[in-house]
Amino acid sequence: MEKVMLSALLAVLLGLILLLVGLFLGMSFYIGREKVSPFECGFDPIGSSRVPFSLRFFLLAVIFVVFDVEIVLLFPVVMMVGSSYMLVGSYLALLIFLMLLFGGVIHEWREGSLEWEM
């Protein structure tokens, strides 16, 4: 039990140290007008640098991330299918998970988020 507590404490401390190092390295020490203006080869910027982009592109990117994460969640289960370690409850949980994912795809399809034409 002590090893588990020690490894958990070490993981938390390592995470905090990495967080603080990232925050320190990411700090901007000097923010001025020239720092925040876009650089266009020495010329004065033309127009706004904050050009709006299509919300459909953002939605498509979010859908990709969601379904990419579900592939990562499914990979260990696929490797276990057919082994003696897979119990009936595991098959039921896999079936429910796949039904939820299929329901999400159907919802996105009906909503029109999977249309590729802009």
Automatic annotation (TrEMBL):
Its EC number is 7.1.1.2. It is found in: Membrane; Mitochondrion membrane. Keywords: Electron transport, Membrane, Mitochondrion, NAD, Respiratory chain, Translocase, Transmembrane, Transmembrane helix, Transport, Ubiquinone. Pfam families: Oxidored_q4. Core subunit of the mitochondrial membrane respiratory chain NADH dehydrogenase (Complex I) which catalyzes electron transfer from NADH through the respiratory chain, using ubiquinone as an electron acceptor. Essential for the catalytic activity of complex I. This is NADH-ubiquinone oxidoreductase chain 3. GO terms for cellular component: mitochondrial membrane; NADH dehydrogenase complex. It is an enzyme of class 7 (translocase). It is a multi-pass membrane protein.
